[in-house]
Amino acid sequence: MRLSCAVLLVAVAVAVAVAVAGWSGATASASSKVRLDAGPTAGVFDSPIHLEVSGLTNGEQVTVQALARDAYGKLWSSWAGFTADRSGTVDLSRAVPQQGTYRAADAAGLLWSLQPTYTTDPTAQFFMRATTGFIVEVQAVVDGKVEAEESLTRQAPAVRLQKQTVEQDGFDGSLYVPEHAAPDSAAVVVIGGSEGGEAVLEADALAAAGHPALALAYFQEPGLPSCLCSIPQEYFARAADWLRAQPGIAGRPVVLIGASRGAEAALAIAAYEPSAFDAVVAISPSENINGAYGTGAASGSPAWTLHGAPLVQGTPIPVAAIRVPVLLSAGGQDPVWDSAEAADSVMRQFDAVPGAPAHTDLYYPHAGHAVAGAPPDFPFNENGFGGSPAADALAAERFWPQMLGFIDNAPGHPAS
Predict the structure, then answer these.
(1) What is the pLDDT of residues 315-357, one digit of tens each?
(2) What is residue 9's predicted lDDT score, i.e. its pLDDT?
(3) What is the three-state SS of the chain?
(4) What pLDDT digit, counting tens, does each position of 379-411 carry?
(5) 9 in a structural domain
(6) Where does a domain end: 121, 155, 189?
(7) What is the pTM of this model?
C-alpha cells in the first residue's frame, strides 16, 4: 500500500515455481479433459472474478493454486484443495476448501489469501502492485499433474497521475484523476499510518471508482520528516486547499480518509481544522492523541502540532467539535490498539452532542487492525495485525462499497 514500483510482472518460470511449496511447476496437459474457467482474464485489479474447474469425475480431488509476483519481484502464492461434486465440477464461489490458504467458499479466495513465500522479508508485508498491474497464474492440479491453467491480468485503472513535491507545492503527494470521473463526484485525500509514505493503492482504487484521489504523505518522503514527528495540522489543510483549486476538482466536496495513525490524524484534523474537509473516514482509529513514532523520534516528543504548539500525547481528540459527517471502521481483534472501543467512544461522544453530524461505526468482530486497509480481494499479509485473512477480506468486501456510498453522499463545501 506504499509507493508502487514500475516493474512489470512477467510469467513465472518453472524453475522458480518449483521452489514454492505446493506449486507443481508443471505444464498443463494438452489432452486433458479438465477445464479451468477463470476470468475475466484481463480486468481492473479490484474487479470480481470467477473460477470453476470442470471435467473431473464425481468425488475426484483437485488442487487449485495461484502464484503472483509483486512490484519488488517477491513471490506470493495460495492454494486450496477441493472434492468435485456429482457433475465433476468445482465452483470456487460455492465450494468450501478442505484445506489450503483460505477455508471459505469464495471465488476470490485465491487472490486475497496470496501470501509471501519469504515471510522474513519486511518488504513482503504488503503486496506492491506494479504501476501497470500484475498477473496471477492459476492452475488446476490432479494427482500432482497440472491439468489446466489460466492467467489473470489484474490491470491498473485508467487514471492520470500528477506528482506534487514539498519544494514546489508545500506537500508531498500523488494525485490520481480518473479519465471518466462524474462531474459531481467527491475528491478524496488519503493518508496512511505509521508506515509513512503515500497510500497509493487506496488512492488508485478510489480513482478507479471515479473519485479524484490525492495520496498524501506526511513523513518519510523527500522534504518531509523522517519520523512521525511534529507534523502540523495545517499541512493537511494546505493540501486540501490545493486540491480544491485544481481544474476539474474545484467545487467538489473533499473527503479525508485515514487509517491507523492516519485515522487519528483525520479525526484530529476534522476537530482542529473544521473547514478543511467535508467528510472524514477513520479506519482503526484512536480517540486520543498519540506520541511521535519512527526512527529519530525522541521519547515524549509530539506527533502533531497546531499553530506551532504540540498536541499533547494522551490528550483526547475533541471529536465533539467535528462538524462534518464521519464514518468509522474497526475490527474486534485489533492487537495494535483497541480501535473498536475508540470507535465506540467517538460514537458516544457524537450521540451526546445535539445536532451532531451524521456518524456511523462499521464494526467487524473477527477482523484485525487492517480491517479495511485495502480494496476488496487484494493480497495482504496480515501478520502482526490481528484477525485472520478471511475476516479481513470479508470486512474489506463489505466496507468498501459502504465507504464509496459515504463518499458519494458527502455534503458540498460551504465555500463552493
Answers:
(1) 999 999 999 999 999 999 999 999 999 999 999 999 999 999 9
(2) 28
(3) CCCCCCCCCCCCCHHHHCCCCCCCCCCCCCCCCCEEEEECCEEECCCCCEEEEECCCCCCEEEEEEEEECCCCCEEEEEEEEECCCCCCEECCCCCCCEECCCCCCCCHHHHCCEECCCCCHHHCECCCECCEEEEEEEEEECCEEEEEEEEEEECCCEEEEEECHHHHCCEEEEEEECCCCCCCCEEEEECCCCCCCCHHHHHHHHHCCCCEEEEECCCCCCCCCCECCEEHHHHHHHHHHHHCCCCCCCCCEEEEEECHHHHHHHHHHHHCCCCCCEEEEECCCCECCECECCCCCCCCECEEECCEECCCCCECCHHHCCCCEEEEEECCCCCCCHHHHHHHHHHHHHCCCCCCCEEEEEECCCCCCCCCCCCCCCECCCCCCCCHHHHHHHHHHHHHHHHHHHHCCCCCCCC
(4) 766 566 888 878 888 888 899 999 999 999 999
(5) no
(6) 155
(7) 0.85
279 shares a domain with 338: yes
Q: Domain span at residue 30?
A: 14-155
Beta bridge partners of 163: 174
| 190 and 280, same domain (yes or no) | yes
Is 292 within 8 Å of 301 (Cβ atoms)? yes
pLDDT in tens, 70-107: 888 888 999 999 999 999 999 999 999 999 999 889 99
Q: How many domains does the chain have?
A: 2
Q: Is there a contact between 351 and 87 (Cβ–Cβ < 8 Å)?
A: no
